[in-house]
Amino acid sequence: MNHQLNSSLGIIILDEHGHFKHTNEVAQHFLYYFETFKSHFQENIQHYCLLECLCEITNLSINNGIIFIQPLSNVVLLERENKKSAEVYNELYEVINSSFDGIVISDNKGLILHQNPAYGDITGLHPSECIGRNLTELEELGVIDHSATLQALYKNDSVTINQSINTGKNVLVSAVPIRDKTGDIKKVVNNVRDLTQLNQLETEIQTLEETNQKITEELKSLKEQLNPKLSLISSSAKMKEVIERALKIAQIDSGVIIQGESGVGKEKIVNLIHMHSLRKKKPLIKINCGAIPENLLESELFGYVSGSFTGASKQGKIGLIEAANDGILFLDEIGEMPLDLQVKILRVLEEREITPVGGTTPRTVNVRIIAATNRDLNAMVQAGEFRKDLFYRLNIIPIIIPPLRERKEDVIPLTYHFLKELNEQYGLNKQISSEVLERLRRYDWPGNVRELQNMVERIVLMSEDNVLKSAHIDKEFSNDRVNDRVETMIPEANVPLKQYLASIEIHFLKERIKEHPSLRSAARSLDIDQSTLVRKMKRYNLRVEDIK
């Protein structure tokens, strides 16, 4: 009985503080919703359904607390899907039949499957004359002079034609192929209108097109919200506060500085702000101020006119600020921006104007600037390394993203999220054992979410077992420690001097890049230009994301 209970029910046992002290394997799949379970338990709600994860919950106050999770059975889910499909079919049928336009649907052989009442009113053709007959036959009999459906099937594309019917009607027919996932045509939908009424219906057509565009945009927005790749996975109260703060300031244009360690997800917050802002239909342009050499950063941001400098394009070039006009410009690693360039960014914020490099005529821009950094800008202002006026102009609404070690409640949901993505991407069916989840949760993750994602990907792809256990993660943690140690071994015999020196230079570059927040500061510590450092990294195929 206990075995049957454990295999069908998820069980979460709470301690006196409301934290879970034990979960079985079934409950592991629902830990993302633990905060919801916990709040309902504290509200003394004994039994309820949670549609978000399709389960029934029962709360018992025995030995501090037990939460039972009953996943809905496949039969119930299938019944719901069938009911939903029937509702959608009936709604679609009603929409087609209530349309003022004539609509005819045929299969990929030209056989007519359905026509709505409006088609009969427009053409004078009764359903008995059309449904179940092939359009080739109707052409041969002279019922119609030529078929838009047959042309669409032949051209493998949409077709619009003028069509004459033996009832004396002339109509405009638009045939649109409906395809399956592989791109093959399954059906063709014909939209039919009386040409004599088109002039009267132009205004209606415009309205319908606008409505269709709005519906398409709403559907796209809904898909983006439901797509886990575009969602922010969070369970901790700290991260939920960050998300709520970002959503509150999304529709205003106040200055924002997003602060947090490397890998915490600053770019994700910028995407969230853009997605929910009034500028969401306009560009979101991103630039890493620390990854571009100082002598090129100004021309990248402000553009340049013809003949501004040696090597400049004869046509000139539009800058990223102007490219982001009416949208959002994301300045990542703003702390690495040179002081003289900070003055020009301040002018953009205050005057809404830019002047390209080599130009004399200002250009008006309407752009929202969001900045991010992993450095302490307050300390940089005090040290004279960052302009105070720009700092206060940008830092109207600060968003501070806590490191993953301060929100460990997010580790397990993030792990499941990355695991699901990898399983879908590579067609796998990997699972993670509870001991591995606990190991991941206890680790401090100095590289934050990015490091966690890399580790999950590594153990999933390197393991041959379907269930990931402690041995797999121990091996990868061990490899990290080995890679972090300085290699001081004497090279093997007959190794060329050039190769030996290159290996030392690679190691030295990696160490400096790890120690500094940006390529510019790393280059400064090496006493070389940033462009020289970038060139050496390209030579040795080194990437910042792989090193950090």
From TrEMBL:
Q: Which Gene3D superfamilies match?
A: 1.10.8.60, Homeodomain-like, P-loop containing nucleotide triphosphate hydrolases, PAS domain
Q: Where is the PAS domain?
A: 88-141
Residues forming the PAC domain are 155-207
Q: Which residues form a coiled coil?
A: 191-225
Q: Does the keyword Nucleotide-binding apply?
A: yes
Q: Which UniProt keywords apply?
A: Aromatic hydrocarbons catabolism, ATP-binding, Coiled coil, Nucleotide-binding, Transcription, Transcription regulation
InterPro entries tied to this protein? AAA+_ATPase (IPR003593), AAA_lid_NorR (IPR058031), Homeodomain-like_sf (IPR009057), HTH_TyrR (IPR030828), P-loop_NTPase (IPR027417), PAS (IPR000014), PAS-assoc_C (IPR000700), PAS-like_dom_sf (IPR035965)
PROSITE patterns (UniProt xref): PAC (PS50113), PAS (PS50112), SIGMA54_INTERACT_1 (PS00675), SIGMA54_INTERACT_3 (PS00688), SIGMA54_INTERACT_4 (PS50045)
Q: Where are the transmembrane segments?
A: none
Sigma-54 factor interaction domain: residues covered: 232-461
Q: Which PANTHER family match?
A: C4-DICARBOXYLATE TRANSPORT TRANSCRIPTIONAL REGULATORY PROTEIN DCTD, TRANSCRIPTIONAL REGULATORY PROTEIN
Name listed for the protein in its UniProt record: HTH-type transcriptional regulatory protein TyrR
What organism does this protein naturally occur in?
A: Savagea faecisuis
